[in-house]
Amino acid sequence: MALVIENLTRRFGATEVLRGIDLAVADRELVALLGPSGSGKTTLLKIIAGLDWPNAGSLTVADEDWLARRPQTRETGFVFQHYALFPHMRVRDNIAFGLTVQPRPRRPDAAAITARVNELLQFLQIETLADRYPAELSGGQRQRVALGRALATSPRILLLDEPFGALDAQVRRDLRRWLRHVHEASGTTTIFVTHDQEEAFELADRVVVMGAGRIEQIGRPDEIYDHPASPFVARFLGHTVELPVTLQAGRVQARGLDATALPRRALPDGPARLFLRASDITPVPAEDGRYRITDLASTGALLRVRLTESAGVEMDAEVPRRTATALAVGQAVHLRVQAGCVFVDPRSATAPPARPTVPADAPLSELKESLP
Ligand SMILES: Nc1ncnc2c1ncn2[C@@H]1O[C@H](COP(=O)(O)OP(=O)(O)OP(=O)(O)O)[C@@H](O)[C@H]1O
User: Fold this and answer.
1) Fewer Cβ neighbours under 10 Å: the N or C end of the chain?
2) Within 13 Å of residue 48, how many CA atoms lie on the same side as its CB?
3) How confident is the model at residue 346 (pLDDT cuts 50, 70, 90)?
């Protein structure tokens, strides 16, 4: 492992901003820290860089105690959202900066610095910008230069804090692809902070979802997308519809809901909550349908269907517009769900202890054994 964090905590006064973080990042891996504002992402990044210190816990890089190293010797490259390039220096001098200020024994000679800068300019596809000043660059170009500056000293770990946060959507998408390519070619172990789910999923080998100073889930993007580990992760990843349901023999049941497409869950019988994305719901016209269509709005490719339940609960479904010609305002429907995640209702936590669970993909015989 390139970097191992164990039980790291950080308090500011009485506020615990990091509450026991455990994280291992492999060599050459690109890991995204994803979470809402205030979840502790930047604090964690700063601790790795040596710009902040934990109250407890350990941080090692290649088995070496990294907290014992001074920030200047941590061999990290850092890019912030608003990374201030030196305005009076040309691009090539900005990139060279980290090398020129190295202590004399480690500092390369002038020719080696020029060669390294030229190599980076070419590698990052910014040769044509070499003699410009920062004021003559676009935001996206500035962040490419900032990355060049961070990479100049060949850091062991690259730390990026919302580096594309201030840029518009198209530039962000272009830079994401570029960064993925740069990462694959350079192989630098990289930790990337973002609160943008799409950015994290498109870029990262693994995503670390943070909430209120804790790691809620670590996994490959698809794993996290398909199997959120907690209601927090489900909500954060856009499961905006929450329905009270009943679990029986691993099946999700609720009036007006056809959930037979969902796999059986190895969860105890009783109340639970079903978390759905709008795109997981298909309204199916039915005379005795429990939901009524109260609005239809086209977003181009999709039709957004506003649904109201008899008890007043409202939700949106999204269906491909071309397949939804039979839907009309006022129609009664029931809901067919294609995907979703289920968590035992926390309000039932005071109920008798849950029976042992078995893996969700366990054979039926095993599942039955776990049920009464
Ligand atoms: N120096 C400090 N003194 C006091 N509180 C701080 C300090 N630095 C950070 N905090 C608090 O710690 C919490 C976590 O902040 P942090 O910047 O790590 O979160 P974040 O997940 O990176 O958020 P964002 O996405 O908004 O940057 C916040 O509530 C913040 O107010």
Assistant:
1) C
2) 34
3) low
HSE at residue 296, side-chain half, CA atoms within 13 A, is 17
**Ligand 1 pocket, residues with Cβ under 6 angstroms:** 12, 17, 35, 37-43, 195
Which atom of ligand 1 is the closest one to the Cα of 195?
Answer: 25
Q: Which of 206, 231, 256 corresponds to the end of one domain?
A: 231
Q: Are strands 157-161 and 189-194 parallel, antiparallel or unpaired?
A: parallel
Position in ligand 1 atom list of the atom nearest CA 210? 21
Residue nearest atom 12 of ligand 1, based on CA coordinates: 17
Is residue 181 domain-shared with residue 307, that is, in the same domain? no
Helix-strand-coil split of the chain, %, nearest 5? 30, 30, 40
For residues 107 and 124, membership in a common domain is answered with yes
Q: Which of 186, 202, 231 is the last residue of a domain?
A: 231
The per-residue pLDDT for 282 is: 94
Nearest to 230 by CA among 185, 273, 168, 264: 273
Q: Check if the interface score ipTM surpasses 0.85.
A: yes
Give 80 Cα–ligand 1 centroid separation in angstroms.
Answer: 15
Which pTM was predicted?
0.85
Structural domain boundaries enclosing 99: 3-231
Contacts of 341 (CB under 8 A, 6+ apart): 227, 228, 234, 239, 274, 275
Are residue 89 and residue 183 in the same domain, yes or no? yes
Q: How many domains does the chain have?
A: 2
- 354 has pLDDT over 70: no
Say whether pLDDT at 296 is over 80.
Answer: yes
